[in-house]
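User: Hi! I have a protein structure encoded as tokens and I'd like to know what sequence might fold into it. I'm fairly new to this, so please keep things simple.
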């Protein structure tokens, strides 16, 4: 088990600290300690008045839980099932708020996962005569932060290649995207894959990334570029991580 308090954040949230306990378990679970939201320090008397506002305390807790669920949806694959407990947040006289709790809890859990042993997700990896091949889809959480999902296949290659599967474009059209906006997704994902490889490819050497398919969810036209860049970037990072395990076998 590891206990982590998030590193300081920038700007308005810098005073917010969330402490979490994270440990491998047979099944995933997320719990909140009874005294998770507490008060101490030079403003303790003033903060006790805030602590008595149960609606506000519930709002802070909801923010923390959203940050936890988002991070677990995107990071728990690295370790397998985790038992997570939100242990403590001492109210800050200025910075404590819904968004701050979401961000701090997300960071704390991500840091905790980084300290635990990581694993190879065997169902994503196929060993062939020419080497390991990884197939996966980036995680999409149900919290409204991310809509796009991209499925990829990644394998070592003599030189970098990024290709589209023949039926890549055969995704169900997103309800808010025009035909032209949907058609642009192929080019966006190709560019995003090269950008992600620029960042991660050196860890394992040249790769062939094949973009197999995608789903846009209820994506808004203004966020297509960012959503797909995030999705492809996450998928490539995950695949490279898994290839590191597979190549070490």
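Assistant: Happy to help. Inverse folding works backwards from shape to sequence: for each of the 249 positions I chose a residue that suits the local structure. Here it is:
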């Amino acid at each position: 088990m590891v206990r982590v308090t998030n590193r300081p954040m920038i700007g308005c949230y810098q005073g917010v600290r969330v402490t979490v306990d994270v440990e491998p378990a047979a099944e995933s679970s997320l719990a909140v300690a009874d005294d998770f939201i507490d008060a101490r320090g030079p403003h303790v008397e003033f903060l006790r008045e805030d602590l008595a506002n149960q609606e506000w305390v519930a709002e802070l807790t909801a923010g923390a839980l959203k940050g936890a669920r988002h991070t677990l949806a995107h990071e728990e694959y690295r370790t397998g099932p985790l038992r997570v407990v939100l242990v403590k947040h001492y109210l800050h006289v200025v910075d404590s708020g819904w968004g701050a709790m979401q961000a701090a809890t997300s960071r704390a859990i991500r840091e905790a996962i980084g300290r635990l042993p990581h694993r190879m997700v065997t169902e994503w990896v196929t060993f062939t005569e020419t080497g390991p091949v990884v197939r996966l889809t980036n995680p999409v959480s149900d919290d409204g932060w991310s809509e796009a999902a991209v499925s990829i296949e990644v394998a070592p290659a003599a030189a970098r290649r990024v290709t589209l599967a023949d039926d890549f474009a055969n995704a169900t059209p997103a309800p808010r995207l025009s035909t032209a906006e949907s058609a642009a997704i192929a080019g966006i994902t190709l560019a995003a894959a090269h950008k992600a490889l620029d960042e991660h490819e050196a860890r394992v050497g040249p790769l062939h990334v094949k973009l197999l398919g995608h789903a846009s969810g209820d994506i808004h036209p203004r966020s297509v570029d960012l959503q797909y860049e995030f999705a492809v970037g996450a998928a490539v990072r995950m695949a490279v991580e898994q290839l590191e395990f597979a190549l070490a076998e």
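A useful reference point when you look it over: The longest strand covers residues 82-90. Feel free to ask if any position seems puzzling.
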